[in-house]
Amino acid sequence: MKRRILNIFYRILFYASTFGLLFITLGPIIWLLLTSLKPETAVFATPPQWIPKDVTLSNYAEAFKQYSVGRLFINSMGVSLSVVVLNVLIGTPAGYAFARFRFKGDNAFFIVLLLVRMIPMISVLLPLFIMFSTLHLLDTWLALILVHTAAKLPVTIWLMRGFFREIPREIEESAKIDGCSVLQTLRRVAFPLAAPGVGAAAIMAFIFTWNDLLTATILTSTMASRPMTVGLMNFIMQFRIAWGPMTAAGTLMLIPAVVFCLWAERYLIRGLTFGAVKG
Amino acid sequence: MPTELVKQMGFGDLKPARRKLSFFGEHYVPFWLVLLAVITIAVILIYPLIYSIYLSFMDMSLGRGTTIFVGIRNYSDILFDDPIFRKVLGNNMVFMIISLTSEFLLGFALALLLNRPFRGRRFVRVLFLLPMLAAPVLVGTNFRWIFNSQFGLLNAILRVFNLPGVAWLVKSPWPMASIIVAEVWQYTPFTTLLLLAGLQSLPDTPFEAAKIDGASWWQQFRYITLPLLVPVISITAILRIVDKFRIFDIVYVMTLGGPARTTDLLPTYTYEVAFSQVRFGYAAAISWITLMLSLVFLIPFIKGALARSFD
Fold it and tell me: What residues make up the domain containing A28?
């Protein structure tokens, strides 16, 4: 009898803590979303309204009209998608090479890859700023795409190498017997089988590019190439902060990341934990 | 002749293996595969890295006009003559220790919670990941809104309980606490994820044996779970420590290092030196000292990270 009560108690404790932690985890995000839907008077109401009485899209309209959120979104999306494509194109063959071949300098290069992942971006961005400045490439999509692609390549190669290693060699060997060259084997056999790896790498590359601030702040200056992360600061002006439209822009920023997460959660988790834990 | 025989047997297409290796031959395939990656990383990351080392020994600043060689003067100035650097370093240490401990304690608790199967667990796990997917700059502005003295959510909740509102971003020691809260909120899911993956990879047998021997939950945790998790904990610690020396967005947006530099951290200070004071050489030196410091804090965890589990 006592055991029963204890069990029920633990159960309640468990669900209570889970809900409590969920509330703390999601609370700020929900607050962001709710604030973005409130008219301006409600945004600044004290005491604050929890659930908005009037739901309005005026913040979104203002964000698009006054603060060019549309352009910011396009910049972010264009750069991020390009980075994903380039990473897959460049990182996949490299990962395959590390997985399947032993060649001179492969260990050295792999260690370099790991070390590169650890450098603080600011060290690299100072010279890059100077370099791009002399090349007149500041404030362009190209500069952002190049830097972000290079920065994400180590992770992409690491992930692809891991995924390729998990494919049984026999499948590739039989492809070779059937007459496939290395590239053909890669394209027709290994790549489709490593699709989850591509998914994981793509998500990682996208999210870390989409969310970046420092690189973009240093390398962009006008709306020509400014992404949404930097654009968020447009809402902070000298004497006031346009909280309403800012939360609207923030919600818009969150949507692609959330969509990715819900759709490809398995790949996302694989991407984040790969290398840290086996299996 | 061998080739005649070979043709007769129906293998007429076979040619003897070529001795000479050309650039397009099979031996060089892996080099071609990695070529683009190597070029990209070398040009965009490695070359600037080396250039930045070179910069750190130079004085390239607006005040001077031309770039001149100053040897290790930047480094010695930073370490011995820069009170701001010392203050910023202290801030970074405090920030790192408190946020790291919190992330691990909370992360572990969450991982243990999520380790038991229950209905909707996968959905809940996805929800817990959400903070990590938000841009740090967004997390920073969002928390700046929540911590707002007048209109912020936190003070509103306090007022409901008749407690006075607090100037979270202005009155010390709260600004440091505020950025720590933002950082822990955002990155605890990461530690949770890694620790959970570690927990789920643990074998069952030691636990079963311990249960038969009558070990309590705490004993199992202390003598089986923790030792087996040392590699995962070490790797997670390394990844998080490295990040504590790179945090920029949240601080930049929430407090900009204020008030009076109480929340200024190494990356924000580096940024200010580089782009507000326009002293690139000095800033480069700071960034390298930052890197070396992060390596120092990594060292205790490397041994644990390299150890692999027993299977």
Answer: 23-56
CA atoms within 13 A on the CB side of B88: 28
- Quick check: B193 and A17 CB within 8 A? no
Model pLDDT, residue B108: 92
A44 and A105, same domain (yes or no):
no
Alpha helices in chain A (DSSP H): 2-36, 40-43, 58-67, 69-100, 106-118, 121-134, 141-165, 169-177, 182-184, 191-193, 195-210, 214-219, 228-231, 243-263, 265-273
Same domain, A194 and A224: yes
How confident is the prediction for chain B on average, in pLDDT?
85
Look at residues B263, B249, B287, B247 and name the one whose alpha carbon lies nearest to residue B91. Answer: B263
Of B34, B137, B198, the CB nearest to A229: B137
Q: Which of A50, A73, A123, A226 to mutate to test the interface with B (most CBs of B within 10 A)?
A: A123
The CATH topology of domain B83-306 is MetI-like fold (1.10.3720)
What distance in Å separates residue B173's CA from the closest CA in chain A? 22
Q: Which of residues 70-129 of A touch B (CB under 8 A)?
A: 89-91, 93-94, 96-98, 100-101, 103, 106, 109, 112-113, 116, 118-128
- Contact list in A for residue B34 (CB cut-off 8 A) is 93-94, 97-98, 109
B256 at A interface, C-beta within 8 A: no
Distance of CA B3 to the CA centre of its chain: 62
pTM: 0.85
Task: Indicate whether A32 and A99 sit together in one domain.
Answer: no
Q: For residue A135, is pLDDT > 60?
A: yes
Regarding predicted confidence, which is higher, A101 or B309? A101
> Do residues A211 and A85 share a domain?
yes
Is residue A34 domain-shared with residue A113, that is, in the same domain?
A: no
Mean pLDDT of chain A: 86
Find the DSSP H helices in A68-105: 69-100
- In a domain? residue A258: yes
Instruction: Burial-class residue A93 by CB neighbours within 10 Å (0-12, 13-18, 19+).
Output: buried
Judge if A49 and A167 occupy the same domain.
no
Q: Over the stretch A24-53, which tens digit does the pLDDT of each residue have?
A: 899 999 989 988 888 888 888 777 777 777
The answer to the question of residue A9 being in a domain is no
What ipTM describes this predicted complex? 0.86
Pairing between β-strand B68-69 and β-strand B58-59 as defined by DSSP bridges: antiparallel
- Residue A83 covered by a domain: yes
